[in-house]
Design brief:
Largest sheet: 6 strands, antiparallel
Strand content: 25-35%
Radius of gyration: 23 Å
Number of strands: 10
Mean pLDDT: 88
């Protein structure tokens, strides 16, 4: 009579443990970076909404500058309408957390590749510090699209925030499998 060879309990437990560790590592790496970039796109949306509300309630121009050199956003209540911080004007900064501005290889609006595109872009004299201006009625001078990604710069973690100039309404986009796709949050 021949005996059948079987796996021992210890061998089965070791294989299951190894599979569990690898699966946990892979899932945490995938979802953590996606959630991080999604939270940053929501932060940027909230900054735009807050700046628009401030412009309307205080009847003042508000400049929102996207600083790619330091991965932060500056909000300036521009009472003298010169685009620079002057005495008596309020300025606040919000840093991106685990994300950075992105110059994508293809843009949503077909514009030249840059991290902030569209006719509503305000040039500040520094290409790494582009801005938008929100008028006292809450509108921008034109549509813009802002691009970000994680600091790991993974292709599936690329996001875009499209801002409609007339209303400052936003829409979200993600870059998956080589194409931009509109997302609903």
């Amino acid at each position: 009579m021949t005996r059948r060879r079987a796996f021992t309990l210890i061998e089965i437990l070791m294989v299951m443990t190894l599979i569990g560790l690898l699966a946990g590592w892979a899932v945490s790496r995938f979802t953590a970076s996606s959630y991080k970039v999604d939270s940053n796109i929501r932060l940027l949306q909230n900054v735009i909404i807050g700046a628009q509300q401030t412009a309307i309630t205080r009847n003042v121009n508000v400049q929102v500058m996207f600083d790619a050199s330091e991965d932060r956003v500056r909000v300036l209540l521009d009472t003298d309408n010169d685009g620079a911080v002057s005495t008596g004007e309020t300025v606040t900064y919000r840093a991106l957390d685990g994300a950075q501005f992105l110059t994508p290889t293809t843009t949503i609006d077909g514009a030249a590749e840059f991290y902030l595109t569209g006719p509503g872009v305000v040039e500040t004299g520094n290409p790494l510090r582009r801005a938008i201006r929100i008028a006292p009625n809450g509108s921008l001078s034109g549509d813009v699209v802002l691009y970000i990604t994680t600091t790991a710069d993974r292709p599936n973690d690329q996001r875009a925030l499209a801002i409609t100039g007339a209303t400052a309404r936003t829409s979200f986009w993600s870059h998956n499998t080589g194409a931009w796709r509109r997302r609903d949050y």
